[in-house]
Design goal:
By secondary structure, the protein is α+β, with helices and mostly antiparallel strands. The chain contains 2 helices and 15 strands.
């Protein structure tokens, strides 16, 4: 083998060694950054926000059916209009919360009965409380015959059980650092009383604001 070939192999070996060192350096740097972020996360101890449903006013809760004896949801309709007051408190002392998107809607017997109301993008500072009072509604939403029967029974009782829910994405903010997005689910079960405005049952309501002060379940 000529001296020229030996020199060429020696250059290749040095190049490979240099690439290995560069790769190892980048890997160590990434690991250190991840360790620092993890330690900061542990020290700050982020806590999920606390949601409470303060009150609710049921304006419309009207069921109708063209074929009550049919098990099919076709022909069974529910129209709902309800205003709720939700508060959220950030218990963290060093971490802010960015609500990138948050949809509020109502469900009844596991069926979504209103369209989602989009809460405007918001930032919640340390130990800060935010208040939202959206009006959520659904027009002629198909429901099963079982749900229709349950609604008719609650018409007689003068109260109904509705779950007010919120779903969206949040980020944590520490100084100038902002985390990735996390999914948030909020569930606020609510017993809501109503007053009938005459002999037309649920379809003719006198709006009644019900103070709930119900703590919601939050999953992040």
């Amino acid at each position: 083998m000529s001296s020229k070939d030996c020199g060429h192999h020696h250059d290749d070996d040095r190049r490979r060694e240099l690439l290995r060192r560069v790769f190892a350096g980048i890997l160590i740097f990434i690991i250190l950054i991840l360790i620092i972020i993890f330690l900061i996360w542990i020290i700050l101890k982020p806590t999920k926000p606390r949601f409470t449903i303060q009150d609710a006013t049921l304006y419309v809760f009207n069921s109708s059916s063209t074929n009550p004896s049919s098990p099919s949801p076709i022909g069974n309709k529910l129209t709902t209009t309800i205003q709720v007051t939700l508060t959220t408190f950030n218990p963290n002392e060093r971490i802010g919360i960015l609500y990138e998107e948050l949809d509020v809607f109502a469900t009844y017997q596991g069926t979504q009965i209103t369209l989602p109301y989009k809460i405007p993008r918001a930032y919640q500072d340390h130990r800060e409380q935010l208040v939202w009072s959206p009006i959520i509604s659904g027009d002629a939403v198909p429901v099963s015959s079982y749900v229709l029967s349950s609604i008719q029974q609650e018409e007689i009782a003068g109260e109904t059980f509705i779950s007010v829910k919120a779903s969206g994405r949040v980020k944590w903010k520490v100084g100038t650092w902002v985390s990735g997005s996390y999914h948030i689910d909020v569930n606020c079960p609510s017993y809501i009383r109503f007053n009938s405005g005459g002999n037309n049952g649920i379809g003719s309501l006198i709006p009644l604001k019900v103070q709930l002060e119900q703590v919601c379940a939050v999953d992040v």
